[in-house]
Design goal:
By secondary structure, this protein is α/β, with parallel strands linked by helices. About 40% of the residues lie in helices and about 20% in strands. The protein contains 11 helices and 9 strands. The strands form 2 sheets. The chain has a 5-stranded mixed β-sheet, with helices on both faces. The longest helix is centred in the last third of the chain and has 30 residues. It is globular. It starts with a strand and ends in a 17-residue tail after the last helix.
């Protein structure tokens, strides 16, 4: 079964065709990173407008190598995400489902990230499956008993881990998106600054807001300025060494937090497969930390770690076995 996936939940306009949940026949992603780099983060109205400008061309380019005659169904991300962004992709998908008379599936973006792991692979998913989804919008530990039955063991109470990378990058005067730029700075630094790991009632929940504030306080202390100094003024007052050490210390603590919780959940639930997915899964430091304990843990290929539509089409393939298709005239969006 060939499914056309459409993804516009945040700042990537994407469409892809995936055969039987794993074989990628086409994959088009237009990123808005350059636009959002200028403002240091995603402005929702700007994201929605950019999706409108890109969506037709992106869908046409993804459909072209396969053709409508060989597309069996359409899948679109309907939750969670930025409401204006979700509206653009879902309206496009609904229109296409109606005009081409195809079945439509409404897909959860966080679950979709998990299905990026086996794109282009032969092996099947093994259950119980423990997934850590780490991105700019989400940090979730999910235990899947089957494609149908799953439970969210924990999630972030405040900032997502990728968001913390982005905010720390801002404090250190590093470019958006923060993940890759903090990773690069961290390579030149030493993890010498002690930062806290939040203790939460649910051991599988996450909290990164305190860690981000601890980086801010440490930066203010190193710069020798007061607590009322705005974060935007700090980078100019820090030496290169101080910045790279802060980046290394933050990255080490964030990754230690993720690895600890994954480990705790694995000890309790004895998964047959572990998947780490989402934009932050492209972190080499995270890969190394996870592989130390779980050498067989699966990470998506880099192009499928960040937002894409192939993962949406892949999840829809498995979901089509047990989910009722969406009514293209009545699709509910659930934003963040
Ligand atoms: O999955 P994604 O493309 O979008 C969302 O669904 O949010 O993830 C983007 C996030 C950004 O916060 C970015 O800073 C982070 O992934 N990221 C990284 C790395 N590459 C991207 N975080 C840490 N290390 C990286 N190498
Ligand atoms: Zn995502």
């Amino acid at each position: 079964m060939n499914i056309l996936g459409i993804e516009t939940s945040c700042d990537e306009t994407a469409a892809a065709i995936v055969k039987d949940g794993r074989e990628v026949l086409s994959n088009v992603v237009v990123s808005q990173i350059d636009i959002h780099a200028a403002t240091g983060g995603v402005i929702p109205e700007v994201a929605a407008r950019s999706h409108i400008e890109a969506i037709n061309a992106v869908v046409n380019q993804a459909v072209e190598p396969v053709g409508w005659a060989d597309i069996d169904a359409i899948a679109v991300t309907t939750h969670p995400g930025l409401i204006g962004s979700l509206m653009v992709g879902s309206l496009a998908a609904r229109t296409l489902a109606i005009t081409h008379d195809r079945t439509l599936y409404a897909i959860d973006h966080i679950l979709a990230h998990i299905y990026a792991a086996q794109l282009g692979q032969q092996d099947d998913y093994e259950f119980p499956l423990l997934a850590l989804v780490v991105s700019g919008g989400h940090t979730s530990l999910i235990l899947m008993h089957s494609h149908k039955n799953y439970e969210v063991l924990g999630q972030t109470r405040d900032d997502a881990v990728g968001e913390a990378f982005d905010k720390v990058a801002k404090i250190l005067g590093l470019p958006y998106p923060g993940g890759p730029s903090v990773a690069e700075a961290a390579r030149a630094g030493q993890s010498t600054i002690s930062l806290p790991i939040a203790k939460l009632e649910n051991p599988y929940d996450f909290s990164f807001s305190g860690l981000k504030t601890a980086v801010l306080r440490a930066a203010q202390k190193l710069a020798g300025v007061g607590l009322d100094t705005p974060s935007a003024d700090l980078a100019a007052k820090l030496t290169e060494q101080q910045k790279t050490d802060l980046a290394a210390s933050f990255q080490a603590t964030a990754i230690e937090t993720l690895a600890q919780k994954l480990h705790k959940a694995a000890e309790k639930y004895h998964p047959k497969q572990i998947i780490v997915a989402g934009g932050v899964a492209s972190s080499e430091a995270l890969r190394a930390a996870v592989h130390q304990t779980f050498p067989n843990a699966t990470f998506p290929a880099p192009e499928f770690s960040t937002d894409n539509a192939a993962m949406v089409a892949a999840r829809a393939y498995y979901e089509s076995e047990f989910t009722k298709p969406a009514d293209p005239y009545d699709v509910t969006l659930t934003p963040n």
